[in-house]
Amino acid sequence: MRLQRLWTVAVVVFACTLPLILTTTGQPATTEIKIGAVLPLTGAFGSSGNYFKQGYTMAIDDVNKAGGLQVGAAKYPITLIILDDGSDGTRSRSLVEKLVTDQHVNFLLGGYDTSLVQAQEVVPDQYKIPYVEGGGAASEIFKRGYKYIFGTLATIYDMAKITMDYLATAADQYKLTKPLTIAVVWENTDHGKDYIEGVLDGVKARPDLFRIVLNQSFQLNGSDFSPLLQQVQASNATVFLSDAHLPDFITMHRQYLQAGLYHQFASYGARGPDQRGRQALGGGADYLIAALWWSPALKGAASQVFADRYTREYHAIPDWFQALSYDTARVLLAGVKNAGTLDGPAVRDALAKIEFRNALVPGGVIRFNPNGQIAGSPYIMVQTLPGNTVRIIWPKKMPETFDAVLPMPKNQ
Description:
Layout: E1 6-8, E2 33-39, H1 46-65, E3 69-71, E4 74-76, E5 78-84, H2 89-101, E6 107-109, H3 114-120, H4 122-127, E7 131-133, E8 149-151, H5 156-173, E9 180-187, H6 190-205, E10 210-218, H7 226-235, E11 239-243, H8 246-258, E12 265-267, H9 275-281, E13 289-292, H10 301-314, H11 320-339, H12 344-352, E14 356-357, E15 365-366, E16 380-385, E17 389-394
Parallel strand pairs: 2-5, 2-6, 6-7, 7-8, 9-10, 9-11, 11-12
Antiparallel strand pairs: 1-5, 3-4, 13-16, 14-15, 16-17
């Protein structure tokens, strides 16, 4: 069996400044906080998993550079331990348990991808260890009754609904052909089921405007979407909607372009602005519409500081992956600080009532519903443009919002 790689991201450098304190049992008292995470650093989701590693590391570095996290009367350095699950759900769950039983972590940060988060989420409740994640957005994650799971991503259902709301507005503003005939394809996972449910509810709300001409699922991590795209082409739709993770987006849209397909409006959910996608597809990714949890196009002070810092440290433009993982780690740390203790149930209660401000998500506030899902629907709509440019196109009330280029140009 291949040995798992253990990534110690933040080395404790402050422990020597803390006195050695013995408990009443004669054992050393806590001198550090251990936070564990299992991420897909290799495999199908390796790119996204490494982005999350970067965001988590940035947040932990902030605290350690300030001398540690203040918890009650003590200040603790933080060690972040990251294990690689290779994008495998079974391995992911067992490694989270290993972090708890072998590494004795105090708290957990979540993985990336709905399927991997779902594999992990049984462990936190079993051991009463708070777990905050920003990599899984399917509603199903929060329907299982777990009390120690908190998510910073608005749902995929909400993503679909805001896309449909924007599409209805765009139909009038940009004189798209009515009724809008829609070909929608979605991955056959809980993530995808959330997406198609949101799209269909949007259609039901405006039966005068929308008509579904293709509704088809596909398997995650595909290599050939040509038969699916032939169905899309045969549908003669004017709008193309696809729910796809980053690897599938790159493969599907490359084949879409090779087949010479064209639609007045095309969206791959949150895909399009991703730097990895832009590198793979070049100008082929121009003019796509995406619903995002964050973008460097946001002009708020917190977003601009984060984007500038990330670019300095990693010599690249950040995507939502890094921003949301950074927020996710900051929310966990704030919950620990607010609790004033390292006790798991007490920190869980503090997270349940947290109101984290100066967050990077649209609106700048993270709070949680009783089921642990982020409250509200913090999304923006963006459009990719030539020159690796991204512009916010919705909601209209934002000062950085621009008009979209629609219908999409045919010569992309």
